[in-house]
């Protein structure tokens, strides 16, 4: 058991920014929520074996397009979304909720569940739907995207109150349909909304989550913070040492495009490096990296862009033409993965939206046998 502190919150947001892969929320939003959580209560982080094994775990997240700037999410919105799912799940199943977890890492995603944990007295589970940020709920659904009969519940809370855009909803049903409703709700709320979802038995989370994800972000942030007094190159070196990753290249951004459409950010970035131009494609997060038509990295690999001067990870919206950056690649085999990013059923939608091939580069993901 680890009692979470302000330093843990700051490190989780800093290290989570690397795993954000250009998305994953907002640094200041994460600091606000994390710092408030550890002063509102005394949240603790535990492993999956440290909670009662006959209970439920709820995932806390935020849904929408990270480049949106017209949204409003208060810390209490995460608490309210959790309460909606907790009450409905306990009434439906007769089981009690015994812990909370994050959907992913990110600038703020690494601490999304800390506020409801502090408010409820429940522990933070050192696990996530995946260690790096992902664009769709289905990719973080821990392997349930391909089961149309799987029923779940999801809640969303948030939106600008002074513009009467605030929403509060609880939906139950098929994972695909409820996920699409959540995405639509984020658009109606101004681009992003606090959410809770996937009340699952501890035994399922034990089998399907990416365990150790939050402590990985905290350790990475701690290493980065320790290196900062030595400058940007020292921070870049600390990132590689902590993650086991490599730098695909370092150079200036030659061109970039970024737009928000349908509740997602879509972008393309070209970076001139001595080894050749690196082309990055983004859907909320960086999903592929290529050089000269050769695929260098493919989701669920971690693909992150860092500022060359400071060594700090950059959000997609803050990457501008002419900026000198370094592109990080951490192969998926080096980090914990949730079952959702290895679920074949989550990828056809991704390939259709992005117009890119993913499955050919992921031999470990097998196509399900056709039903007779």
TrEMBL record:
Residues 8-142 form the S-Me-THD N-terminal domain. Residues 178-330 form the S-Me-THD-like C-terminal domain. It comes from the Bacteria. InterPro entries: S-Me-THD-like_C, S-Me-THD_C_sf, S-Me-THD_N, S-Me-THD_N_sf. Pfam families: S-Me-THD_C, S-Me-THD_N. This is DUF917 domain-containing protein.
């Amino acid at each position: 058991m680890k009692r979470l502190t302000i330093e843990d919150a700051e490190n989780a947001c800093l290290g989570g920014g690397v795993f954000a892969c250009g998305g994953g929320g907002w640094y200041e939003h994460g600091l606000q929520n994390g710092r408030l959580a550890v002063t509102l209560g005394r949240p603790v982080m535990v492993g999956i074996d440290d909670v009662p094994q006959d209970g439920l775990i709820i995932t806390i997240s935020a849904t929408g397009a990270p480049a949106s700037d017209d949204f409003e999410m208060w810390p209490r919105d995460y608490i309210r979304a959790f309460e909606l799912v907790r009450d409905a799940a306990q009434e439906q199943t007769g089981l009690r909720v015994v812990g909370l977890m994050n959907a992913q890492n990110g600038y703020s995603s690494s601490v999304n569940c800390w506020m409801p944990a502090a408010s409820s007295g429940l522990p933070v589970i050192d696990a996530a739907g995946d260690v790096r940020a992902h664009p769709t709920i289905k990719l973080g659904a821990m392997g349930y995207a391909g089961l149309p009969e799987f029923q779940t519940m999801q809640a969303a809370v948030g939106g600008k109150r002074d513009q009467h855009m605030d929403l509060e909803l609880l939906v139950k049903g098929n994972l695909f349909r409820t996920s699409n409703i959540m995405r639509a709700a984020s658009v109606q709320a101004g681009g992003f909304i606090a959410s809770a979802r996937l009340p699952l038995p501890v035994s399922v989370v034990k089998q399907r989550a990416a365990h150790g994800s939050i402590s990985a972000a905290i350790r990475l942030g701690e290493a980065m913070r320790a290196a900062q007094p030595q400058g940007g190159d020292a921070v870049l070196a600390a990132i590689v040492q902590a993650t086991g990753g490599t730098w695909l290249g370092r150079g200036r951004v030659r061109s970039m495009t970024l737009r928000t459409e349908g509740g997602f950010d879509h972008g393309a970035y070209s970076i001139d490096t001595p080894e050749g131009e690196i082309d990055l494609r983004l859907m909320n997060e960086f999903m592929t990296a290529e050089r000269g038509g050769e695929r260098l990295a493919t989701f669920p690999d971690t693909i992150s862009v860092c500022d060359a001067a400071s060594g700090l990870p950059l959000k997609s919206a803050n990457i501008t033409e002419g900026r000198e950056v370094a592109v990080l690649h951490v192969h998926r085999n080096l980090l914990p993965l949730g079952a959702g990013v290895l679920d074949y059923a989550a990828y056809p939608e991704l390939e259709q939206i992005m117009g890119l091939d993913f499955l050919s580069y992921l031999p470990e993901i097998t196509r399900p046998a056709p039903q007779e």
